[in-house]
């Protein structure tokens, strides 16, 4: 029987962010607005989504497998989500397994009322906490690390909601940008390192929490500010109140958000993502110059860096690879003979633009390397005289434990090959990666502060900024970089 | 209750081609290959698709509403389509109404065996023929003009299949690129003017018929040649045979295929679509120069012309408008208040790239003008100092009757406004359309031959190259250009 | 892998009627009333159903796989069926293959307007006519014999609808009780032998056509009369008009309708089905008396005959076999071990009622004999001292070609065994079938008139009352009974 | 818009049992056998069902809305349920609200392994316990009282599973027949009064727990014995072990199981249900004799009592009311005019059997009385000279809190009318209910022991055998009848 699977050359060979969150407090049609916000955050997770709303007396929950536009555009669905307060979540399926029971926001009726929570990021001590809670009789209904937070709030001995929430999040390690909804308030919270993004917005006086600014733009909301690393912001009818329940630490925002995850029209901490990517491309042209006729992006993720490269190098930018807009996730592979045809489901090189040319090919990153290999071959088959691959980030060498779907280290091309070997593997005439210092420079830093790195760049450097309790198998094993960085959450 | 409808500023304000066709003769896994070919032609119609295969003794039919990747990637579906010969069709729903019974290919067991047919184009005398056939007792099971062809073949008094097919197509007026499958042969046929494209390909000795060359590229097939206007090509186990059943005429290929319909990586009659669009952009820069800081495409259809414009004008090209890749066809509009928010479901302007700049905005065409109005406004809201709109085609003034979904003339902005009025309407600082002569020049013509136009450009010129019998309401009114075989409608 | 199939002992070992028809003319909410009528006729076909309505200007068609209560109770479906005239059909899937395209009523836009038709029965010359029509260019969109009638009407050279209809039905052989709807009238028609039932009803002045009187009862309509064999009744705004387009013949109503097909609360030609079945039971007690303690029906089809038997024999009637009301058509058979367990999905014998008793078991008929074998065994396993099987019809020896799903003759137990062999096969202490004369006597006849039988009893006697053209394979072979108009097949 | 609702005269005016449970330990294809067992228990709950299996290392859960035959006959579903141990549940939707999250068995990974539980019955202190647990931080993921049991086991401080289970069930009040599955054992448990049934069976050495014996019969399993009231039976690889964790009390089995809930072929505590119903009918004939021509059951629930009545009274038994076997739960009610037609979706009186007759109509119970009213009218409309209604149970005056769906007391006809008023209301010539003493006599008792009633008959007597903590709103309020009866659970 035929396998239903992704054809090898069509696999989307990228790291994948696992979530987007969005909430609005005090606005008519709140759920409809959350649906729009999540639609703008769809690139952060496409497998499933959910919205919880509150109408002053009751909570309403809708969770569905599939895209926002497939589920949350149905009037029947939106109409069931009454109320002027709502939070939502869109997710990539890997973390915690798929299935409806893992779709967020999670909701429970606690002793003092309903409590809903949506989470972007990943905890590094969730299994450890879960085992402790189960011994005390807590029953978990999902395999998601996020449910752990819900149970910590539920079993806290503190009296009021804020104190219970603080009690809960203080026990967490890892990355968490949270949006929670109770019968009185909406709460936003970022882990002390601020690994995942979270911004505060304003729509005609109603507060919004969102993963990225593009989710404010879609509804014409005003960007107020980024929620600060380690900040817990509580939104009620009387406005916002901020708490800082964690020991202060220097922030370590995920640098890969700039490389690939965030939408180019979003801005984080004052940096516009599109402009950062163009500067990355310019820096790449500086670090790895090449004599060539045209610069071609691997669409669409390589496009801004390719434009930056082309402008800096003075080489014409061309759309030499055309992307099929109707690519779904899977395609038929009925027989070996078809699999071996090497069909071009996703991309096609435009021979007329390429034939006889020396081509600079710009992509954002190399993960397993299989896609790069196929694309170089496709460009060669279209008649390129030379193919020079330029990668808009350093080699990715280590997995992420902070809410990003990454293959195990052994599958990362850069973890088992030198650049020379990779050049051979993808059969390019030359291959150049952006340096880690160059990446920091594109972010307007003088360079990486190795004593106290300004970003989380563990996927390039293996320098994890938090404990990895669940990985270590031992609560006593401290991660060196955490100790070295001085701060940790205990 | 809430309306489920397209928000006004999100409506896809374009002409829409209505079909793509694909067939392969004599190749294992024929249906799987047709599915791949149709996937590459998905831009020509997204509402529904079908495949008919033949295994030497039996025909198999699968027709589904939805994308190829949603339906024809299921092993169960493909496995039901036995055989080494298959044809397929992907369609845009407008012509003949939606519903499964209108999904092509059409199939019938005729007296001498099964007969399947797939059609790109539109007949201009289908209703007239249908009335005649019904009077003779023919029963129509769809509302599609294509079924008319099937009945003409079925009721022909000729003896063999070729003669019956010729008998049928000779009665047709309008645009038709056909692929048919019988128990002996696959037949391709283009109307005498060659209004819609159809190419012949070869995959390791198996013949392919396809609407565009990109459908050959996806499976690595070789482009052999375009099927000629007025040619009927019959493919059997013994090779191909060509017939020319129509009175010879000069060809009138649809010029709008170059402007918008065809995929940029396709080539038609020797012209690469991407390169034509770049030349259109360059020509546009020549015709309507402007002092500006950046050139921004309306993605994705305006991109090649924008690149051409930028290169010719020496102004930097920027992706100032970001497209949401997860746009479905409809989105919620629960209340007036949300409808009036002017949400940006599909596009977002990137303020950082635009603020304070003089912007050239390049789009492929203006139909109703509503999208242009919204996009100009969005770019202004993002801080542009000036917005100069440049359109990569002449003003569209007239509906198409040849297989393109166009609004009625009264809804076409250019049919009721001058360029000055349109500039005001879309609130641009300036507005420039490519001239009809410029468009022909981008196609390497010296200009339009008004006595015998080289292309069908009726949507710009109202010069329809065939009779419009169903429109005219009279069978006796002959269309001058048909009589003159080379004349035109003026 | 597990087979999804009917467990052997659970197969419904019965002949199956293939259709029920219903129409109403001139009543608000016509489609809703048709749905109710079809619901009452659901026992005549459970695989699929359809309704066509007409609102004075337009026809509306809904056809669905599944039960009436699953599909035609949805307000959205009923609301799409506008108008005060409607006809409907419910079908058993065997004839002509399954699939939506075979679901009736069939509808076509003919030259003089829409025409819908629903058919109970089966034509014995449909394939022969179809081949002729295909040679003339007719295109068939289903594999149902009913579509043939539609094409005959469409291709008739007659001018007005009545004449075209008459022209069509005169060419038919076999069994047909038809209900048709045009833009002017509703037409009912029974074949000249009246093989299948069709009654005329009245609901507050609106005429109704229905397969059985129980479909009048459900809506409180008044029974007017049976449509006569060979009658064509035309209902318009001005009332009814009758035509007799066929050569007169003695009627041959299907006697098996009394034995099993019709609902017990229906009446046909003055005979109430329940009362006939009780008389059959009494006659059976007379023909095959037995010394026993209790009479038990095989539920539910054997119940009226068992009551009749028990009353006539003076033996207590008991519900010794309990039927599971939730039996679907299929059940799991994951492994051989479970298949060999002999699970009792449909029936269970109640040990307490049976243990130590001499049991008379009454069933309506024996087809393959497998169910009888299992049920006798089940009753024995429950402790019965003796099991005497009594069958409320003669041995079924021959297939039906008039709209009943029957196995081929070789699979009919009675066609390959004597009564003695059958007694052994089902392992009963004794086995008695009603005689053919006894069956006629239960219908108040003195006996069967072998020269001119009063009923069609071909499944018992092989005496087919019409030509079987498609079976014979020769158009020239005339069936004697047709020529003789009152003769029979011997 | 049309309402999708049950037509008034078609509402199923009965009490409804809410659950059936089934488990098997140590048998290949365990889940397939559970599906068969649940199919036999389908009459105890039709809205949803679930199965949990265990294969020695992992648990597998499938829960679906709909009938067993709709969901658990799919090989794909059954094949996902690996292992030789499995329990299942079929439910009626009312208790705890509908929705998949309330479908049983419930399953959780507790600290010492997986734990699944299925429950027939209803707790009368679940809300009270739930509030306490929530205060301690337990998170409930359903609205079902059964989840409470799961949390009590999870939060028990006892060490081993048996002790934790005992700790949990000792806190419960109300009715509970439980089947639980852990990674080591299957546990059955009945509340101390044994209100709901539970039997132990044996299939070739594998133990089975089931609500009724008919679920043993379907798979040919042997009935071993009833699980005793207050017994906890633990099944492991080493056999069974019994515990009696509750203070001993006299049993109070639900007497309504004999009247209506249980399947007639089941036996409880030595009484065969069909035989009890026949004796009820005979007792009814004795208590309320009548001069009549025929005895007609309201099918199917009144049939055994009607047979008993007819035999005792010497009046012929007739199937005068025919039931439509294809009744779904809802039917269209598009307009007032159709609603007022009084359509007969479910039953039809057979005029020929009834006309001119004096009819005894036998039904099992009267709840709201609306159905009785319609049926009496229907029998009168069919020409009955007299209609004498006989009810095979005492008047139902009080709601049930032990797992039966009953209307509030104010909607029970007998709670607001005398028998004379009821006779008028249903427009019968006479109306007779079985006496409470007569009901006990049909169960071979000399009569009801009012000091210590042998059964729970609260729906007739308001004598509730347990505390109704959640109802009382106060944990200190003792129910008088419980005190008076001497025994209670503390």
Number of domains in the coordinates of chain A?
Answer: 2
**Morphology call of chain A:** globular
Largest two-chain interface: A-B, 70 and 70 residues
CA gyration radius of chain A, whole angstroms:
23 Å
Regarding quaternary structure, what we see is: homotetramer
Query: What strand order characterises the main sheet of chain A?
Result: 5-4-6-3-12-11-13
Structure report:
4 copies of one chain form a homotetramer. Chain A is α+β, with helices and mostly antiparallel strands and 490 residues long. Chain A is built from 19 helices and 27 strands. The first copy, chain A, has 2 domains: 237 residues, 4-Layer Sandwich (Glutamine Phosphoribosylpyrophosphate, subunit 1, domain 1); 168 residues, Rossmann fold (3-Layer(aba) Sandwich), CATH 3.40.50.2020. In chain A, the strands form 8 sheets. Chain A has a 7-stranded antiparallel β-sheet. A 6-stranded antiparallel β-sheet of chain A has the order 7-8-9-10-14-15, covered by helices on one side. In chain A, strand 11 and strand 12 form a beta hairpin. The longest helix of chain A is centred in the middle third of the chain and has 15 residues. The termini of chain A are far apart. The N terminus and C terminus of chain A are likely disordered. Chains in contact: A-B, A-D, B-C, C-D. The interface between A and B is large, with 70 and 70 residues.
Gist of the model:
Chains A, B, C, D: Mg(2+) binds at residues 301, 363-364. With 490 residues, the first copy, chain A, is an alpha+beta fold.
């Amino acid at each position: 029987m035929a396998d239903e699977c992704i054809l090898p050359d069509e696999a989307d060979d990228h790291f994948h962010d696992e979530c987007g969150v969005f909430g609005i407090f005090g606005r008519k049609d709140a759920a409809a607005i959350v649906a729009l916000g999540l639609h703008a955050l769809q690139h952060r997770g496409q497998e499933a989504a959910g919205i919880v709303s509150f109408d002053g007396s009751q909570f309403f929950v809708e969770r569905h497998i599939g895209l926002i536009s497939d589920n949350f555009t149905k009037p029947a669905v939106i109409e069931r989500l009454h109320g002027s307060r709502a939070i939502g979540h869109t997710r990539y399926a890997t973390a915690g397994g798929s299935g409806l029971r893992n779709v967020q926001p999670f909701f429970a009726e606690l002793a003092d009322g309903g409590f809903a929570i949506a989470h972007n990021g990943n905890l590094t001590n969730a299994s450890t906490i879960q085992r402790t809670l189960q011994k005390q009789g807590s029953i978990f209904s999902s395999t998601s690390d996020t449910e752990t937070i819900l149970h910590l709030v539920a079993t806290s001995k503190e009296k009021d909601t804020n104190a219970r929430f603080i009690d809960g999040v203080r026990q967490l390690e890892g990355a968490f940008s949270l949006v929670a909804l109770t019968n009185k308030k909406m709460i936003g919270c970022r882990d002390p390192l601020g690994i995942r993004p979270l911004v505060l917005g304003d729509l005609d006086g109603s507060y919004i929490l969102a993963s990225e600014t593009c989710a404010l733009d879609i509804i014409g909301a005003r960007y107020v500010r980024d929620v600060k690393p380690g900040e817990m912001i509580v939104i009620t009818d009387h406005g916002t109140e901020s708490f800082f329940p964690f020991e202060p630490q220097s922030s370590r925002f995920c640098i890969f958000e700039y490389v690939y995850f965030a939408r180019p029209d979003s801005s984080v901490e004052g940096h516009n993502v599109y402009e950062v990517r163009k500067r990355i491309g310019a820096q790449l042209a500086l670090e790895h110059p090449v004599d060539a006729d045209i610069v071609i992006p691997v669409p669409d993720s390589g496009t801004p860096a390719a434009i930056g490269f082309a402008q800096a190098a003075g080489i014409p930018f061309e759309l030499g690879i055309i992307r099929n807009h109707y690519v779904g996730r899977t395609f038929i592979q009925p027989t070996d003979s078809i699999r071996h045809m090497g069909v071009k489901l996703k991309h096609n090189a435009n021979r007329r633009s390429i034939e006889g040319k020396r081509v600079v090919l710009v992509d954002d990153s190399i993960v397993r390397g299989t896609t790069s290999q196929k694309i170089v071959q496709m460009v060669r088959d279209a008649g390129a005289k030379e193919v020079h691959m330029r990668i808009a980030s350093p080699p990715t060498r280590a997995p992420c434990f902070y809410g990003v779907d990454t293959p195990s280290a052994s599958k990362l091309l850069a973890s088992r090959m030198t650049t020379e070997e990779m050049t051979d593997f993808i059969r390019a005439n030359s291959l150049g990666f952006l340096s880690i210092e160059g990446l920091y420079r594109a972010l307007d830093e003088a360079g990486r502060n190795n004593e106290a790195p300004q970003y989380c760049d563990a996927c390039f450097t293996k320098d994890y900024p938090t404990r990895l309790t669940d990985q270590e198998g031992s609560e006593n094993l401290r991660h060196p970089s955490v100790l070295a960085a001085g701060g940790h959450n205990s």
